[in-house]
Specification:
Order of helices and strands: EHEHEEEHEHHEEHHEHEHEHHH
Helix content: 25-40%
Number of helices: 12
Strand content: 5-15%
Radius of gyration: 19 Å
Number of strands: 11
Structural class: alpha/beta
Oligomer: single chain
Strand order of the largest sheet: 7-6-3-2-1-11
Amino acid sequence: MTLTAAILGLDGPALLPDEAAFFRDANPWGFVLFARNIEDPVQLSRLTSDLRAAVGRDAPIFIDQEGGRVQRLRAPHWHEYLPAIDQLGAGAAGFALRGRMMAAEMRAVGLDGNFAPCADLAWPQTHPFLRSRCMGVTADEVAQNAAAMAEGLLQGGVLPVIKHLPGHGRATQDSHKELPLIDVNRVELEATDFAPFRALNHLPLAMTAHIVLPFLGDQPCTMNPRALQMMRKDWGFGGAIMSDDIGMGALTGSIRERAECSVAAGCDLVLHCNDDLAGFMAAAEGAGVLQGAELARCDAALAARRQPEAVDFEALRAELEALIAAQPGS
């Protein structure tokens, strides 16, 4: 079976016939859903089932379920989570519960991949689009909290995706709109922003950052072979690495060119979230066939999916809320 090295989105809450035909032919490795695709549990369960039927396999289906403003499953059907930075006082135990609760809600509707945890270090200057999503203000705090949340997700049968490698926290620009430049020397970054990602190099999946680090050259890290080599060779990250959304304003060139450059730089998978059918086709064409070492890493990531044990969601919620209530200053 030939797979395309891409994770792709779709237009709305139901799979359209032309989308189904495209997915059947292109066979993307996975799918990503956004708020536009989600109405309620019944509808979402039908959509995830239809997506897997279109490709004839148990393809991974991802969402961004970080908590706070970046949360695709929302009330009244799903639990509302605090922004990560507002839960720091609950410690790693709180983030483990958070991950396990999210996984339970996700698996119930056929979702098994989460673009979380966000292991970027929070700095005073971190752009507001990102700062509330960060899981700590020191490298050790971030690493411990992110590891706990990732394990909670894995226990619940959901694949975590650590992001944004090599570290987006010092950026003062929003990469959805423009390309951030972080002009800090490597020695300092290795001791701070890079450290959580090195500590989490055992996780199955990661996502790149659309940032420029001058010591690596003038290309965005997503399209920079030196950045991908640093993550793989220097940090020892052995999991599959996907690009951040190639439709974001930080990148230039056509969608096909962006996909081609990301794969050429060393990304195993191209993520394209928001477009029309022609745009998703262009991303698939640029990403090409998933094969070789890239396919092996993606297969290993899928093998990390566990069969979740049944949990008492309300008991988990009560435990998390008690930890949050006990935070200093609560």
